[in-house]
Each structure stands twice: as C-alpha cells, then as structure tokens.
Design goal:
Helix 11 packs antiparallel against helix 12. Strand 1 and strand 2 form a beta hairpin. With 307 residues, the chain is an all-alpha fold. It has a two-stranded antiparallel ribbon with strand order 1-2. The chain has two domains: 54 residues; 239 residues, MetI-like (MetI-like fold, Orthogonal Bundle). Helix content is 78%, strand content 1%.
C-alpha cells in the first residue's frame, strides 16, 4: 500500500506541474489581453471626451494653431505653443540625460568595483524615489536663480531650467535599464576580446556596447517617454508662457502642464474641457508612436543579432 501511494504521488507531480504551467500560461495570456483592453479603453475614453472639440474646432486647427486664448470672447485653441514648449523641454532633458546616463551605466557595469557599484545603485534608486514636486521646488530655489544670472535673463523659469530637472528625473531610468543591458552581455564576448589584445575600454566600445545597443535604445526611449509626460516640474519651472518659444531660454508651456494647470478650472462637458482632452489624445498618440517605433527598432535589432 505504501509503495502504491508513493507511486501515485510521483505520477501526480508531473500532472500537477503541467496543470500549473497551463494556469500560469493562461494568466499571462489574460494579462496581455487585459493590457490591450485597457489601452483600447483609454483611447475610446479620450476620443469620446474630445469629440466636441474635434467637431467644432477641428484636429488640424488645434494642432497647427498658434494662439492659445481659451477664455477670450473669440476663443482660440492652438496647441503649437505647448507642442514647441514640450519639444524644447524634452530636447534639453535628452541632451543632458542620454550621454550622462549611458556613461554612468558603462562605468557601473564595466569599471566600478563591487562596493562602488552597490553604493551607486542605491543612490540611483533613491533618485528615482524622490517626488517630482520636491525636485521642482529644488529647481526653483537653487537652479532658476543661477540660470537667470548665467544667461542674463529676466526670469529663470524657462524651458531650459525645466529641461535640466526633467533630465535629472529621467536619469535613473536610463542608467538602470542600460546597466542591465550591459550586464546581460555574455562574459565570453569580453574574454574573447581581451584575449585578442583589446584593452578593457576597446572591449567596451567595440564589443559590449554594440551587443547591448538594443537595450540601451530601449532605455533612451523610456527616458524620452518619461520626459514628454512629466507634468509637475514643467508646471512649476517652465514659466507657463503662451508664446511659441524660439529658444529654450524663454518661458514656455508644455502639453502636460497645460492640461494639469487648466483642467480643474474648466466646465465639465464644455468646449474648453473637450479641447484639453483632445490635447491629451494628441499627447497619448505621440507617446504611443514613440513606443511603437522603439518596439520595431528593437525587433529588427534582435533579428540582426540572431543571424
């Protein structure tokens, strides 16, 4: 009897594992379907709430409009000042965080000692945990006065100031994901390169960086998404000016900052309310296109390295 029960338990284990695998597979599939459903629901919600603006103002008139006077007698809802302001803030942030983030990831992955790596990673995790409003307050107290003094400006609340802080906020994302991509490169590639007479730095830029390029690209795209969607920092530091900025050293407004700053003051269901949802729809479309482009490039990179 004991032998029979033991054999039954042994036979039941593979069946249990197969059942568990099926359950986990189904849960993963349901999670993927749920993500698609949620994304579609967000799209439908934005379209429904922006439908009045799309009918009465027109998408092209909003996207290409140069004036933003939503409360005047003859209201104008041009997105171009916010679009250009978002571009300036994002450009400054990317110029700052891409080289610094990738360089920091290379140092942590390839050159730092174990103790230094642990301390540095802890600091990066702490940076990611700092609330954006705290960084905005630090920026307005410490950075804005210096920007005004350095460039002899009337105010330090500019797209340049906001871009620096937004870039600092995107740094943890770029550093962490880039470092993971570099760490995932097989050690055999490094060993082979060193055995051929390359120095450690030559190994990094000839072997490790090309192998991890897809992961680094993904890190940059996630950092870009982080910068485009940032709200609180730009609302406080960018100056919230309605003009079309021709340089980063002037006050500007961004699309997320405009939505956050005006949504609480509009009449629900009104035209201004609908226009803000239309702006959100445009912002959502841009971020979706960026992530889609990143996925396409990443897939091509994976196919390239499989050959």
């Amino acid at each position: 009897m004991a032998d029979t029960s033991t054999t039954g338990r042994r036979l039941s284990r593979p069946a249990f594992r197969r059942a568990a695998d099926r359950v986990v597979t189904q849960l993963i599939g349901l999670s993927g379907i749920a993500a698609i459903v949620i994304l579609a629901a967000i799209t439908v919600f934005l379209v429904i709430n922006s439908s009045r603006a799309l009918r009465e103002v027109g998408l092209w008139n909003m996207v290409s409009g140069t004036d933003w006077f939503p409360t005047s007698e003859h209201a104008k809802f041009g997105f171009l000042p916010a679009e250009v302001g978002s571009l300036w803030v994002t450009a400054v942030a990317m110029v700052l965080c891409i080289p610094v983030g990738v360089a920091a990831a290379i140092y942590i992955s390839e050159f730092a000692g174990r103790r230094t790596k642990e301390v540095t990673k802890s600091i990066i995790e702490f940076m990611a945990a700092v609330p954006s409003v705290v960084l905005a307050l630090l920026g307005i107290a410490l950075l804005a006065p210096h920007v005004r003094e350095w460039f002899n400006l009337d105010t330090g609340l500019t797209a340049f100031t906001a871009g620096i802080v937004v870039g600092a906020m995107a740094l943890p994302t770029i550093i962490t994901i880039s470092e993971d991509a570099l760490h995932a490169v097989p050690k055999d590639l490094r060993t082979g390169s060193l055995a051929l007479g390359n120095t450690q730095w030559q190994t990094v830029y000839k072997v490790v960086l090309p192998s991890a390029s897809s992961g680094i690209f993904a890190a940059v795209m996630l950092g870009l998404g982080r910068a485009i969607g940032e709200t609180m920092v730009v609302l406080i530091l960018a100056g919230n000016s309605g003009i079309i900025p021709d340089t980063a050293l002037v006050s500007a407004r961004t699309m997320p900052g405009t939505i956050a700053g005006e949504m609480a003051e509009v009449v629900q269901g009104g035209l201004h309310y609908s226009v803000l949802f239309a702006m959100g729809l445009v912002l959502f479309t841009v971020t979706f296109a960026i992530n889609l482009a990143a996925d396409i490039v990443l897939e091509r990179q994976r196919k390239k390295w499989r050959r």
